[in-house]
Write a structure and sequence with these properties.
The chain is 0% helix and 57% strand. The chain has 123 residues and is mainly β. It has one domain (18-120): Jelly Rolls (Sandwich). The protein is globular.
């Protein structure tokens, strides 16, 4: 058997979903169920990638100084609002990056599903 790295094909994996809700102290609207299918975690635990889905609602987010997230919406619509009130919306086929140190609000306008890649550098 080979120990060579192989391509990860999300469509060929059966991943058990993980479920959670925004923490109570961060919730702004609703108590949306969030579902994560993490398809890949690097050997160093610095990169993870998968699919994330969420019901309608909103909550405050605060990214660590060493954590960035890229995502591309597959279904639905979401909005990310920074502390200055600037908003970016994304629908199917649209992508956003939430940079390290970002603080603001994540709002799900329509039930959303997205592909994500998170980079969390070791400090």
């Amino acid at each position: 058997m080979s120990n060579l790295p192989t391509v990860i094909d999300f469509s060929r994996q059966t991943i058990e979903p993980e479920y959670d809700h925004p923490r109570q102290e961060r919730r702004l609207q609703g108590n949306p169920l969030r579902t994560t299918w993490n398809h890949f975690t690097s050997a160093s635990d610095e990169i993870s990638a998968g699919v994330w889905a969420c019901e309608v609602g909103s909550w405050r987010i605060a990214f660590a100084d060493n954590k960035d997230e890229f995502f591309c919406v597959i279904e639905g619509r979401c909005r990310v609002i920074d502390e200055a009130g600037h908003a970016a919306e994304a629908g199917p086929g649209q992508a956003l990056v939430i940079p390290a140190g970002f603080k603001g609000v994540f709002e799900v306008l329509e039930p959303v599903k997205k592909h994500y890649v998170i980079v969390e550098r070791k400090t």
